[in-house]
Design brief:
- The structure is a single chain.
- This protein is mostly helical.
- The chain has 14 helices and 2 strands.
- It has a two-stranded antiparallel sheet with strand order 1-2.
């Protein structure tokens, strides 16, 4: 195993240990505290306790799993978007995908929420479905306006994403101001990024997207390295640049839309994770992508733990906690890019 591969393996082992520790703390610590013995005996059905089962299986474990999956998806998608655009400041939030999903959720809350009754799959999934559709619609607009003279223009991608995001953000604000106070509060929390209503159905809805799209992205990871060259140089190697960029971009958009549909508009993960990963394992995307996913998992799990415990019993949206971490890092990257 070459040096870079060993470095990646060691980094992944360290990150895995940190993720497991953060999951353990998040599972056992809170208003209702549990010991590792309580968790072990409840999960493996050695001893049944209705309170323990409710706290673990209905409240904490689904939330931890969704936090990890959302971090995984957003981290990998961020690396792809930055690789395609050759822009270290690009992520799904800047491209407007989050804003599109947020606008769709706000529209659902305003027009349809009171009409949804029951607790079946459809009633639980209808809001995430709206979020997914909104993210995909925003992505289609961005994708359509990023083509210029038959080629995919990454410069136009960033500008179009900012414009589309601003438009959907304005639409969300306009509709929110017409809502009832209770609905407005719920919409604000969701748009800020929150996984407080996590459940196993949400996990089942987003898991297929991750299982299908992440292997596709990883298989094409070498192309992200080649995209750092000028398009003329990449085309001279016999690569269909526009086609491959489109496939990778659509895969990353699918990941982001699936994640945002269940977690709200969580930003900065796709911005921070690739930069941290490149500092740890270099620029080879076969090593960067898995490390990005692990860093994203760690950031969201830790941020969610902070969000639900720092002001307990009150709770912050996890997106706000991540933004508190992400804004200084974003400013640092801006200053560094000017140096």
């Amino acid at each position: 195993m070459h040096k870079e591969g060993k470095k990646t393996v060691i980094t992944m082992l360290v990150l895995t240990v940190l993720i497991l520790i953060s999951m353990y703390i998040s599972l056992t610590y809170g208003v209702f505290e549990l010991t590792i013995r309580d968790v072990f005996r409840t999960i493996f059905r050695i001893e049944t306790n209705a309170d323990f089962e409710l706290v673990i299986f209905d409240f904490r474990l689904p939330r931890i799993v969704i936090a990890a999956l959302v971090g995984l998806g957003l981290g990998i998608a961020g690396a792809v978007i930055q690789g395609i655009t050759r822009n270290g400041l690009a992520d799904s939030g800047i491209l407007g995908i989050n804003a599109g999903a947020g606008a769709a959720i706000v529209i659902f809350m305003f027009f349809f929420q009171d009409q949804v009754q029951g607790s079946g799959w459809l009633s639980v999934m209808i809001m995430p479905i709206f979020g997914l559709i909104g993210g995909l619609i925003a992505s289609l607009f961005i994708f359509f306006f990023s083509w210029k003279n038959g080629t995919f223009d990454t410069g136009r991608l960033i500008l179009t994403g900012i414009a589309i995001g601003s438009g959907f953000g304005a639409l969300s604000m306009y509709i929110s101001l017409k809502m009832k106070a209770s609905d407005f509060e719920m919409a604000t929390v969701w748009v800020s990024g929150s996984i407080y209503n996590a459940n196993w159905i949400y996990i089942a809805s987003m898991l297929p997207w991750l299982l299908i799209l992440i292997p596709i992205i990883y298989k094409k990871a070498y192309l992200l390295d080649l995209f750092q060259l000028e398009d003329i140089s990449t085309k001279s190697l016999g690569i269909a640049v526009e086609k491959e960029k489109s496939i990778l971009l659509l895969a990353s958009i699918g990941l982001v839309s699936a994640c945002v549909s269940v977690s709200g508009s969580i930003g900065f993960i796709g911005l921070m994770a690739p930069h941290i990963a490149r500092r740890l394992v270099g620029i080879n995307h076969r090593h960067v992508l898995p490390v990005c996913g692990a860093i994203g998992m760690l950031l969201v799990v830790v941020s969610d733990f902070i969000a639900k415990n720092v002001f307990a019993p009150a709770e912050l949206p996890v997106g706000i906690v991540i933004s508190i971490l992400g804004v200084p890092y974003f400013l640092f990257l801006l200053v560094k890019s000017r140096a």
